[in-house]
Amino acid sequence: MKLLALDAATEQCSVALRIDAHCISRSVVTPRGHAELILPMIDEVLDEAGLKLNQLDAIAFGRGPGAFTGVRIAIGVVQGLAFACDLPVIGISNLAAVAQRCPVITGEILVCMDARMNEVYWGRFKFADDGLVTSTSDEQVSSPETVIALTASVTPAFAMTIGTGLSAYPALREHFRKISSDATALPHAVEIAKLGERDFERGLAVDAAHAQPVYLRDQVTHVKPASTVS
Questions:
Q1: pLDDT digits over 148-204, tens only?
Q2: In angstroms, rounded to a whole number, what is the distance separating the alpha carbons of residues 99 and 160?
């Protein structure tokens, strides 16, 4: 399978081209300029692989939650490319992409990404037997104190916490201090490509016209847990 993935939902702008198990990627961490960076990076990975856009099977993208402008940039680019070559698209949760960056572990993972305004985007995930994450909760946007309160009864305790919310909010960092953590992880197109390939194989790709963002703060879309894999 040949799948292009891209993400612009955070300060990390990234692109990945997944050809079966091989992946070519580019990324830049910058507070702005994603719209100018992403198309040249796409050209680079396609050129390195010796492929044309119309030779791909699908395009995956980070559909949020994340920065409003960044998510819109990703969807606009995806729709333009997909319409041009009649390619299906797959929206992938940015929280799931962060969870996928964890080492494969047993137990639940708590992802907390800084949403500004004293809030975090967060959700719970676990690894399935195929080595890819599935969600075990709704995705939400809440204050750090609400996250602590709503996860206080999780048993057993989380195996790992991950995401920039831990570095942005001392209350979260202190509360989960005894749990393995990564407070700097950002979503990357490499993980979006992995998850996108799985969802493509499950028949979850859609026409480009149906590519939709997820804005948890504005409650435009409410995300339910994905089906678990036994």
A1: 999 998 878 899 999 999 999 999 999 999 999 999 999 999 999 999 999 999 999
A2: 9
Q: Is 130 exposed, middle or buried (0-12, 13-18, 19+ CB in 10 A)?
A: exposed
Judge if 149 and 35 occupy the same domain.
no
Same domain, 116 and 194: no
Domain of residue 50, CATH code = 3.30.420.40
* pTM of structure: 0.93
Q: How many domains does the chain have?
A: 2
Q: Mean pLDDT across the chain, nearest whole number?
A: 93
**CB-based contacts of 159: which residues, under 8 Å, 6+ apart?**
105, 106, 107, 108, 109, 179, 180
Using a 10 angstrom Cβ sphere, with 0-12 exposed, 13-18 middle and 19 or more buried, the burial of residue 195 is: buried
Q: How far is CA 171 from CA 42, 45, 120, 149, in A?
A: 39, 40, 12, 12
Instruction: Report the 10 Å Cβ neighbour count for 80.
Output: 11
The verdict on residue 136 lying in a domain is yes
DSSP tally for the chain: helices H, then strands E: 7, 11
Range of the domain at 43: 2-93+187-210
Check whether residue 89 and residue 100 sit in a common domain.
Answer: no
Q: How many CB atoms sit inside 10 A of residue 107's CB? A: 13
Element (H, E) at 124: strand 120-127
Sheet holding 2-7, edge to edge: 22-29, 12-19, 2-7, 58-62, 89-92
Tell me: do 119 and 191 sit in the same domain.
no
